[in-house]
Design a protein that fits this description.
By secondary structure, the chain is α+β, with helices and mostly antiparallel strands. It folds into 2 domains: about 120 residues, SMI1/KNR4-like, CATH 3.40.1580; about 90 residues. It is about 35% helix and about 25% strand. The chain is built from 7 helices and 12 strands. The strands form 2 sheets. Strands 1, 2, 3, 4, 5 and 6 form a 6-stranded antiparallel sheet that branches. Strands 7, 8, 9, 10, 11 and 12 form a 6-stranded antiparallel sheet that branches. A hairpin with a 5-residue loop joins β9 and β10. α1 runs parallel beside α5. The radius of gyration is 17 Å and the shape is globular.
């Protein structure tokens, strides 16, 4: 398990994770942790641009128990939390659930790996990559369709917190669309040439921003 999707998106070659001791203590405290989460902590857990740009990965020592769930990821003002069922902690790649203010938890992703990829794309678009749009753009459904016609849909999505989908033609770029009455849109890349190509295309749409 190398998390290749994230490594290519952020152009990461080296590991920067938590220590084996940190991970072991968390496993002992909570009985177990999913294999995918352990590996993510071990390889990528300390990369701030992936895990703290907008939303925040809980450190192994700061996992939060909430009734029958264990919270491991949180929105930056703690309005929204993402968690794994305690009964699933011994599974390699369990489902992830989303809650507002630790109330009802609803299914966010069928498995943990897909969630980590979906959140990484959000962090990347939200000014986590070296080359990124300075503004948040407002786009109509018609403008969104123009972007969809040019860029391929990326498999990973978020739905419970907000409806967020991603697009891109290269492994190191992302266009993020957030549904509201129409859409908010951000874009970014770890490759300057690919970013410049996206910018040239998007500038032609003459979008409003805020």
């Amino acid at each position: 398990m190398e998390f290749e999707v994230i490594r290519k998106l952020f152009n990461i070659k080296q590991n920067d994770g938590f220590s084996e001791n940190d991970i072991r203590k968390a496993c002992e405290k909570h009985g177990s942790l999913p294999f995918i989460l352990q590996e993510y902590y071990r390889q990528l857990g300390n990369y701030k641009q992936i895990n703290q740009t907008q939303n925040i990965l809980c450190q192994p020592s700061e996992l939060i128990e909430a009734k029958e769930y264990l919270i491991f990821y949180k929105e930056n003002q703690y309005v929204v939390q993402w968690a794994i069922k305690k009964s699933d902690l011994n599974k390699d790649n369990p489902p992830v659930y989303c809650s507002w203010n630790e109330n009802e938890f609803k299914l966010e992703s069928e498995n943990l790996l897909d969630f980590l990829y979906a959140m990484a794309f959000f962090q990347a678009a939200s000014w986590g990559l070296e080359y990124c749009s300075e503004d948040l753009y407002m786009i109509s459904e018609e403008q969104a369709q123009i972007i969809r016609n040019r860029y391929k849909k990326i498999d990973y999505e978020l739905h419970q917190w907000m409806n967020i989908s991603y697009y891109g033609n290269c492994d190191d770029e992302v266009i993020c669309m957030i549904e509201n009455s129409d859409y908010d849109m951000l874009y970014a890349s770890s490759n300057q040439q690919h970013f410049d190509e996206m910018k040239e295309f998007i500038d032609k749409l003459e979008l409003d921003s805020y």
